[in-house]
Amino acid sequence: MPPPPLPSTYVGDTEERGDQGRRQESDAAQGQQGDGDDWDDDDWDDDDDVDSQYSQDTRPAGGNFGLHLANRDQRSASSAEQQKFGTMKRSFNRFSTFVKSGGEAYLLGTAKAVVSDADKVAVVDSEDGPVWGTHGQPFTCSVTSPKKEAKFHGIKSFIAYQVTPSFNMTPVTRRYKHFDWLHGRLEDKFAMIPVPPLPDKQVTGRYEEEFIEKRMAGLQGWVSRICRHPVVANSDVYNHFLTCADEKRWKQGKRKAEKDEFVGGSFFLTITTPEQPLQVKFVQDQVEAFSKFVKTMDDGVRDGVQVMLESCKKHRGPYKREYQKNGHVFQELGNAFSLDTRPSAMHLTEAMKHTGKTYDEIGQLFAQQPRADLEPFIEEIHEYKGILSNFPEIIEVHKGALKRVKDCQKKEGAGKLQESEAVAISARGDVISYALLAEINHFQQERVTDFKLSTQKYLREQIAFYQRIVQKLEGTLSQYDDA
């Protein structure tokens, strides 16, 4: 779930979210996919259509452990479920997040598939608790060289970017719609991983240079964050996005990604964990503490964005005007003093005019400064608002899993469920818990690094800003030495 768009007061852009609302399809439609999965222009023009009104915020929640509904088959319960001591029957509450995500099917053992070594994802122990295991070599990716292109003899135009991964340094051309498609596939595939939101989408004035640069910077930040995730970065669909330049292979890879069986709850089939069972009390305490952290941080982020947006407005409005008003006072005094033409008074007259000019320039510095410090910091914490918004439903699904495990233990104690089945369900519940704890650790590690770097940058820019003001004031002060 992406965050709400920044208010229009933010750098004056008129933007709308990407057309991710159009990605959701019915399960029946997926079963009918064939050549229609090819990436034809007619199927993927929505993000470039100025009449498009769809946005990320309109997508219904409730799938993929609190993200969005995946396009996948719901496996029916096996006949073994009907046995007296078989696995527990599915809940009739088909609208619960836990059921729709596929989590219940996995937990009860009705979601089955053969998992190859290449598809396996590890959770390992560390001094900070469970973490995602390393899988492949770390790499980076750059988004550069925005270029306006056209089709249909110029009727439709769009911006294409060069996306270059560091592991092969071979650029591929991607449009915003390609990023949008990838975002949907990642959301559908990875349970317990809150995929960060894409940068805001603008509908009108889409090709202004400032907007193009801003969107490119947003896409760069997005791919950089994906590259730092040990699981998502090494997924087949992300590798396909970064490397495929051949149209035929692209279509094949696209169909393969859209028919991936390890999505939502089935993703847990691919996870290997430490053999040590988790203590329920420990897991509940960890998740409860993180849930409170998310709520508190989300409130702080929301308030922080509003305060900083107001500060941007003040820099460009009241602060600028106040300094320019002061400058006008000195300018007027200088003009008045210029009527005294005696040589002994000329130096003071020029110094007064210089002071007025200096305060006017300081006002301009205030108006320009948000681009250097406030706006980058707002972008950083606004991105985190989108990430944080996914966690509450993820946590609720985890609570649903723990509740179902407890229900199984009660049934086993009452003789209504075989011990082996209860043990297996408990083990699968541990997989879900291990995955959540690993993602919590990854989130916290990213947060510490991100906020350290972004706050350092903000403070450095603030220091440089006030140093420029001091230099200007010292320069105008020196004008009075000979007055």
Short description:
With 483 residues, this protein is mainly alpha-helical. The protein has helices spanning 27-31, 97-100, 103-107, 176-189, 209-227, 236-243, 247-258, 280-337, 343-368, 374-388, 391-413, 419-478; strands spanning 61-63, 67-68, 121-124, 131-132, 141-151, 156-165, 172-175, 271-272. The chain has twelve helices and eight strands.
Tell me what you see in this structure.
By secondary structure, the chain is mainly α. Helix 8 packs antiparallel against helix 11. The longest helix is centred in the last third of the chain and has 60 residues. It is built from 12 helices and 8 strands.
Q: Which features does this protein show?
A:
mainly alpha; three-stranded mixed beta sheet; elongated; 483 residues
What is the number of E strands? 8
Judging from the principal axes of the Cα atoms, what is the shape? Answer: elongated
As laid out across the biggest beta sheet, the strand order is: 4-3-8
How many strands, which pairing sense, and closed or not: the largest β-sheet? 3 strands, mixed
N- and C-termini, Cα separation:
64 Å
Rg calculated over all Cα atoms: 28 Å
Q: What is the helix fraction of residues, given as a range? A: 40-55%
What is the percentage of strand-forming residues?
Answer: 5-15%
The secondary-structure class comes to mainly alpha
Provide the low-confidence segments as ranges. 7-95
Strand/helix succession: HEEHHEEEEEHHHHEHHHHH
Could you report the average pLDDT, rounded to the nearest whole number? 82
Q: How large is the count of helical segments?
A: 12
